[in-house]
Design a protein that fits this description.
The chain has helices spanning 12-30, 32-39, 43-47, 53-56, 64-85, 87-108, 118-131, 151-168, 176-197, and strands spanning 2-3, 6-7, 41-42, 113-114, 136-141, 145-150. By secondary structure, it is mainly alpha-helical. The strands form 3 sheets. A two-stranded antiparallel sheet has the order 1-2. Helix 1 runs antiparallel to helix 5 (64-85) and helix 8 (151-168) runs antiparallel to helix 9.
Length: 201
Amino acid sequence: MFYRGQKIQITAVKIFIGLNVLGFVFSLIIGQRLGDAILGLSSKGMAQGMIWQLISYQFVHAGLMHLIVNMAGLWFTGPVLENMLGPWRFVRLYLAAGVLGGVLQLVLSPGSMLIGASGSVCGLVAAYSALFPEMEITALLFFVIPVRMKAKWLGIGVVGISLVFLITGIMGNIGNAAHIGGALGGYAYVRYLKSRFRVVR
């Protein structure tokens, strides 16, 4: 696709961001409660045969800030991972991490309603950390304070903090089990690829 002589590259990352924005707008149009009931992931929905919720919940959000934070994580890690793994493996990574995160959330918090891409994004963060453990990155602590660290500590931190929150009940309105499940799924996926296909940086 060309625009004014310049090539516009369509990537899986951009498509996922577009789908998340569309999901957010769709929920605004039909109403958050109805949107969550149809697209959000819940034990009730799964019992009623709404299997698509394992995928669709990854593309709806509770508010604009929820959407922005998750899309920032996707934009930070996604292009590098997509370039290294290829678009189709990247798509499988994103979706599989989200599904695993959703399943773990249902198992540990069966009465909850889960929405948002954070399980998928945590999978991308863990995959990034596994592939580039010694890379120096700048992470925003509390989304404000810039902190220099090696990528491996970001992955470990995501899992560690989510585990503490899950055990203590702090920030119980967040899908902490989904974060852990997504991160474990992302880590396992790239470790599998590295052993099978010799993915190297």
